[in-house]
Write a sequence for this structure.
């Protein structure tokens, strides 16, 4: 599927796929060497210029996260893995409040893409490359029902700055939510 979305040929993409397209944060438990090894290899051996996180509507992993792990049932490995989605859920709650609505799952699916981009930046080398302009982190969301791919904005800009990071999320109806720009004394432009 990634090669179809990006119109790539054999060998053009270094693809890592997992349940929920989760990127464990540096130092997170349970530890996952597979994703860390892929990040290291991609950035330090292959010298990739772009890392893309692609989520999709109706993601079963995000439904499991939204259910508090209940939907993972008697699958202990899946329940442990879905812990890496807790930051996505926290960001979703921060932005949406504790109200659940009919589009909540798809909003969480978009937020999850944003959070995984943020999680990538917990790795020192990734963050250094992003800040140096040598690596771009891109978020995509595939709406299965409409067969459309949407760009997902990052939670914060690629370069560091003083103050709170901007928090932006694309909702199910394609509105962008987030902090308004600061104005007045101390604002950065």
């Amino acid at each position: 599927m990634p090669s179809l979305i990006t119109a790539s040929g054999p060998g053009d993409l270094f693809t890592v796929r997992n349940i929920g397209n989760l990127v464990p944060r540096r130092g997170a438990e349970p530890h996952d060497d597979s994703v860390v090894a892929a990040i290291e290899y991609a950035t330090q051996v292959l010298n990739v210029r772009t890392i893309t996180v692609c989520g999709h509507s109706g993601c079963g992993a995000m439904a499991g996260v939204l259910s508090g792990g209940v939907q993972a049932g008697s699958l202990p490995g899946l329940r442990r893995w879905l812990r890496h989605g807790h930051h996505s859920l926290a960001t979703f709650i921060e932005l949406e409040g504790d109200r659940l609505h009919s589009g909540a799952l798809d909003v969480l699916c978009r937020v999850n893409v944003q959070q995984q981009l943020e999680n990538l930046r917990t790795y020192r080398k990734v963050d250094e490359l992003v800040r140096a302009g040598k690596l771009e982190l891109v978020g995509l969301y595939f709406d299965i029902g409409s067969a459309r791919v949407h760009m997902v904005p990052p939670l914060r800009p690629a370069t560091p700055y003083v103050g709170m990071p901007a928090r932006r999320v694309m909702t199910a109806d394609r509105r962008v939510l987030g902090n308004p720009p600061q104005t007045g004394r101390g604002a950065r432009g």
